[in-house]
Amino acid sequence: MLRSMKAFLGRIFGGTESSPDEKLEKLQGLIDYHFKNKDILTEALTHKSILGERRDEKHQSTYERLEFLGDSVLSLVTSDFLIRRFPDENEGQLTKKKSLLVSKMILSKKAEAIGIKEFFILSENAVRGGVAEQESVQSEVLEAIIGAIYMDGGIEEARRFILSKMLNDVEMQLVDRDHINYKSELQELSQARFRNYPVYEVKSTFGPEHDKIFVIEVKIANEVLGVGRGKSKKDAEQMAAKEALSKLKRMTREG
To answer: The whole model's pTM is what?
Structure first.
């Protein structure tokens, strides 16, 4: 059983180029935490697509449970950080900052910066389908790693990781225009000006299944104000909302 499992992980982790232990050692260097129990780290990296290939195991664990835990740990540490960093801000202001800092968009960028997608344990079909490139998967595995660090080393080790790898550039993240929630801004403006909600509609999709592009338009009071494109509906809606906001602000200046 042990030999077959090592062979399986060897294939998933890159064949003869490096052993599973070497890959895990490299990842631990990147996250600056070394696990006492490396099985927890392996679980944090294991995608559900692999279940069909692990026919020799009785217990099959994927990252979802650790993601659930990591989400809570990240929320606690981020809340504690913000309330200390911004002592004069109210609950609403702190909530807005926290929502951005723990968003899938930010988490996936942090995961990309660390380079953790190289270490995902995926089925061959998932590899071919580009699963490791998905924003949602990268953010979920990062949360699972937080949960794994908490399980292995406790809250202070998890806090150290979050502060050094995820909250190390908070001011930059909070002022970066690329991180603005354009949908939220458009909804507020639409309600204030038109007493109406924006309506998003998928107009078309194109490209292969693993690299599909969505085209979405946003209407307010039945008038199309923006069109956006993205690799997910969420991204396309954000781009559509950004265009609509720009148009509405221009109309205000000219009117």
So the answer is: 0.67
